[in-house]
Queue: 4 jobs
Job 1
Amino acid sequence: MIFTKRPIKHFVLAAFIAASLVFGGSGCKTHAPAAVMDGKDVLLDSLRSKYGDEFTFVDNAGGGTAVTDHCAIHVRSEKLPGDTVYAVRGVFDGKTENRDNYMAYYLKADAEAYLKAIAEDVYGRCRAFYVPDDKMVLPEDMGKDSTVQEMLRASKCYYTVVLPAGQDMSDKEKKLDMLFEKLKADKIRCYLYIAYLDDDKYYESLKSAADMDKAHVAADCVLGMDDDFNITDKKWG
């Protein structure tokens, strides 16, 4: 029997290349071998094609390998320059997909208006603020033809309802329960915060929930819910 000898240095080189492909390190690799498309570039191309927008890479947002089986990045878009979009290439329900939360930002104004209308049915005059969860992704089929209701039902957001001064707070628990039941009926999961303010001028001038001065809050409540609409947290302050 004749055995053909292979130079050891060639074997070591082949082993090194194979190991490099399998153990690609953390993050989305930016210098993948020419024959393997980088996960970051796969996601950027997918986002551009799907939304007709231009995207630029911000930073890595999770582990990944050079063979693009998993990658998570933050990007910014030309049409939504003030928002940082989270995009992931990974296995969802046994299938490799590209998912992101672009539509949560694209429909932000519509979502805020929709959630305000729900709160007005309970409280009357009020203001509502909507902030997407920056670590969630929407189903792959969620695109520009999707409605705000579909987007809200497929995600979880931070939803703040702000009430003007002079509110009757004797029924605040009842009204909170009414709002929760409306959200449940509409299948909208969220991190809910209700704030009763003590100053109407401050109420009108408030720019965002993040800017709220607790010194002007007469009473407030945090309400958390799980995916099955079980209340996980409920605390009045």
Job 2
Amino acid sequence: MTVLAVAVFLEKKYLLYVKPLATISLILLYLDHAKTKNVFVIISLLVIIATDTFTYMDFEGYFERITSLITVFYSFCVLALRGYLSEEEVNPAKLISVPVIISAILISYLIYTITEMVFPKIEDSIVFVVMIVISLVTFFLICFFIYVADRFEKSIFLFVAGCCTMFVDALLAVNELYYYTTVFTVLINFAEILGLYFFIRFFIQAKPKDMQSLTKEYF
């Protein structure tokens, strides 16, 4: 609530001081409740703190550093989720369905539209944009695979987290590089904290729905 209050009533620069506190609280929540600690989860949250710091210092000035950090964040998230994804679940044949195809088209259109809007300001950093898009899509697909496989309790949390991260990255680019508004800033911070919360809640509460899940070959 403090982060949202600052976003609404104060200048954006003050988020530099309060936003990291929200992420630190999530780290403490994870450390306190998770029976098994996943070091990649902790590292990913620490990377988010660094990302938020540069974002609210100067987004355009540190754009390449921010995109690199976000790519690292998704990479650690993927590593954290490896143990929840079996080889049989990564099956391209499962992707050939109407809902998945429609979703892929909508996501592709979203990425294209936003890139086109902000391109004048990122044309010299297009490699970094490609990096973040690839890492984001990879993370989202893994969350989707785990959710669809439905082998673990609370897998819906991952799907929510994946949707939140995609929403945050898309709106952040628009807000910082195309059209800034306080409303977007509030939505970005709310969605980011919500997504991170559901992400760590999955690791805290996830367990196989049946004993057969334990015998599958996971990455």
Job 3
Amino acid sequence: MSCDKIKLNRTHFDKVAFFNDINIRNPDNCDLKTIRLIKNHLLKVENKIDYLKYNAIEHNNLLRNSKLSVNDRILLNLNKQSNDFGNNWILGIKFTIKIGVQFFLLLLIVNSFVISRYPLYFNFKEEIASYSQILTEFLKFIFSFGFDNKEIQSNGFLYLIFIASKIFIGYGIYQTISAFRKYGKS
């Protein structure tokens, strides 16, 4: 079935209703109640892919709601940017790498202005670090926990950036993994 707009007020089916392959060309015009009814029926028949599609539509509609609290808006925006509400694992990888690069650059900028033992910083007068050293430090920054890294711990600002980056990188990895759930078993 394909339609421009659909409105369901209440549904009751004696048997399981299949909303598979329903296509709403403009789901933004549908109210939340209708989207939730379709989504719940898709969940009952274990159609995860279409369920996640309507879950994303519901969350996008919620984002446009002006009555949404600031905390909910931030969380929904992060979920949209990090994996499109569970629909895009590639977006999760991009989000994780982007966050990692941003925090690594922030670490280098801060390290250029503070005293620490961290070997990399922005240096325009002396010799530039080799690509292998930069890549090694970046990969250590992204993938290691480094809570025992004395170079990063040598300055509180660097350590604070490192801890914040681990929170967001961990969130990005979680979102990447959770986007695969539509391909798994129930």
Job 4
Amino acid sequence: MMKRVSRLSRKKKLIARSGMALAACAGLYFGALAVFTKGIDRLPDRPCEGAVERETIADILPAARTAEERSRLDDDHGIDSREFLFHCSVLTSDGSLLSGDAESGDRSVEDWSSGWVESPDSSSGVTGDITAFATDGAAAIYVSCAPPGRSESKSPKSRALIVEASTLGETKAQGADLQQDLVDFAYELAEHAYKVGECPGPRKFPDQSPRLHSP
């Protein structure tokens, strides 16, 4: 009888220890989730010197242990001293990269859009005089530096702000959703760069970026 009680006691202790071990493992697992999937969440509310919203980035990049933002403004870019370049990128510890470059230059919307129009898998959208194109993993925005309704110069090539955005590695969004999210990201960069760059005159950007549609 004593042996049976002893065996039962040992069995209860073993079950209790196993339960504690499982609970500890579960705690470590869920604790790891809580710690290691908040890399994007730990970015500033508006990364890249306030250029974009963190939620826009979170829509594009998957959760990761860490995420690092980088930005750079070069207001003496190229031969023409009027040109500037603003760069914004976010890299996660899993190797997913989101980057965008806003650059000013003399280029007409027709010249700029020709390459995108010829791409069979591109989508496009227009809001006012702001044009957007996107394909899988890449998007671009064209914004005239002249305020809407005002001619900037008699030059055949208009002064413009062009933003290109792209991804590398895994993304959270896919397909058409990713294309639109990239346009949203590029649009926020364009609005920021227009203010800090060399575009003359005020411009009110619409609340929403161009909505894409297939040809």
